[in-house]
Specification:
Layout: H1 3-14, H2 19-31, H3 33-38, H4 41-44, H5 47-51, E1 56-65, E2 71-82, E3 88-94, H6 100-116, E4 122-128, H7 137-151, E5 160-163, H8 170-184, H9 207-222, E6 231-234, H10 239-250, E7 254-255, E8 257-260, E9 263-266, H11 273-282, H12 288-293, E10 298-301, E11 319-321, H13 331-339, E12 344-346, H14 355-363, E13 367-369, H15 371-374, H16 376-391, H17 397-421, H18 428-447
Helix pairs in contact: 1-2, 2-6, 6-18, 7-8, 9-10, 9-16, 9-17, 13-14, 16-17, 17-18
Length: 450
């Protein structure tokens, strides 16, 4: 059995029932073949076997009391995957789909994403199967307090610095941080995504969406093209999608879609950003509400999607920004995008494209920005928040935004130059994986066996 397949087979035996983790590992490990063939030190030092195993996996019970006085029990997770180049860094996801496999796939991706930023950050991820939807503010507060009562003993500003993710926004970060302060009597940068009044950073809310567009600009500029005038499809309607839409307008593009778990909005005139923010950030409503406020928009219910497809990717566009969740864009979706003239795909979500979809884009020579490079703007700005906390300063919006733009350019350049080094120019999937891996792997060798 070939070496990579042997490692993946071992993962399936040792970590059963974790398909998302196997997918993430397969995508990375297969693209590392040219590096492993070029330099045997990685095989000699068993880096592959070591890097696919988390340094620490923490699972804990979260018991809390709802508004009816009834006890509820959820499961909490923190996977501290790799700390070779810095403290563990990665978000917390609160969603019913959360399980060990989801958190491990996210944590594994985070290793290379954080490495690509050029900043001193290790990789980790956490969360719970708790669903914030339909819960009162008091219920969410009590859950967050119970969650942090266990988590606080495993984190710290130079140990592990969680942030937000799906289901964990500014409200949740506030409740988590308040409980951390209560338990530790300290005010430090142990969480990022904090409020501006108590240690947060400007641009953090916008960072992942803005960074996605900055990466797309770099990809297209390298091909003598730009986003100006392009019709763009965006999936999702959370922070990443909202601020992808916002930045697309700023660079002269026209975003025409957003989506949520219930369905898709297609607004041919262009997504109304003010209405989208009102619906999702203020009212926390479904996208059917958007159509009520913008009757010229078309709503496509998820039940009406083509079988095995996502309606967002059937709408003709020149640039696509999958910004919702994992595996939302499959092989048939990819073929439809290519057929309709899409020249750029930028993955704002974590692993939104299946392995088949990525193969379609690469075969078609579509500019394909992989998630670990494209959505690194969020974690990069989190590190900038950590730097501001350490120096007890707060930088201006323009200052942070410039640093973010520079970091995204660095990530693109690193991935692009690495792809050229291995004789696959334009293959940013391979370039990002090798560039991110090599920095971590070389550090692991320098630090000895651990």
């Amino acid at each position: 059995m070939p070496y990579i397949e042997k490692v993946i087979d071992g993962l399936k035996k040792n970590s059963p029932g974790q398909p998302e983790f196997y997918q993430a590992a397969t995508e990375v490990l297969h693209t590392l073949r040219p590096l492993l063939e070029k330099d045997p030190k990685y095989l000699k030092n068993k880096i592959i076997e070591r890097i696919v195993e988390p340094e620490r996996q923490i699972t804990f019970r979260v018991a809390w009391v709802d508004d009816k006085g009834e006890i509820q029990v959820n499961r909490g997770y923190r996977i501290q995957f790799n700390s070779a180049i810095g403290p563990y860094k990665g978000g917390l996801r609160f969603h019913p789909s959360v399980n060990t496999g989801i958190i491990k796939f996210l944590g594994f991706e985070q290793i290379f994403k954080n490495s690509l930023t050029g900043l001193a950050l290790g990789g980790g991820k956490g969360g719970s199967d708790f669903d914030p939807k339909g819960k009162s503010d008091n219920e969410i507060m009590r859950f967050c307090q119970a969650f942090m009562t266990e988590l606080f003993r495993h984190v710290g500003p130079t140990i592990d610095v969680p942030a937000g993710d799906i289901g964990v926004g500014g409200r949740e970060i506030g409740y988590l941080y308040g409980q951390y302060k209560r338990l530790t009597s300290s005010h430090d940068g142990v969480l990022t995504g904090k409020g501006l009044l108590w240690g947060g950073s400007l641009v953090r809310t916008e960072a992942t969406g803005y960074g996605s567009v900055y990466f797309a600009e770099n990809m297209l500029r390298d091909r003598g093209d730009s986003l100006e005038g392009k019709v763009c499809t965006v999936s999702g309607s959370g922070n990443v999608a909202i601020y992808t839409v916002a930045k697309l307008y700023q660079v002269g593009a026209k975003p025409v879609t957003v989506s949520d778990s219930g369905g898709t909005i297609h607004h041919a005139a262009g997504i109304n950003l003010d209405v989208l923010k009102q619906v999702k950030e203020v009212e926390r409503a479904r996208l059917t509400r958007y159509q009520e406020l913008c009757p010229d928009a078309r709503y496509i219910a998820a039940t009406e999607y083509p079988k095995g497809r996502n309606a967002v990717w059937s709408i003709p566009c020149q640039a696509a920004f999958p910004s919702a969740t994992q595996n939302e864009l499959g092989g048939e979706d990819a073929r439809e995008l290519v057929k309709n003239g899409c020249v750029c795909v930028c993955e704002g979500a974590n692993m939104p494209s299946t392995l088949e979809a990525i193969e379609v884009f690469l075969a078609a020579k579509t500019a394909c920005g992989p998630a670990k490079a494209v959505n690194a703007g969020g974690v990069a700005t989190s590190q900038l928040e950590m730097a501001q906390n350490a120096s007890m300063q707060q930088w201006s919006f323009d200052e942070v935004d410039k640093k973010l733009r520079d970091i995204m350019k660095h990530i693109f350049t690193s991935a692009s130059e690495t792809a050229k080094e291995f004789k696959q120019p334009g293959n940013l999937v391979l370039g990002a994986n090798i560039a991110g891996f090599r920095k971590v792997a070389d550090t692991m060798i320098s630090l000895g066996v651990f």
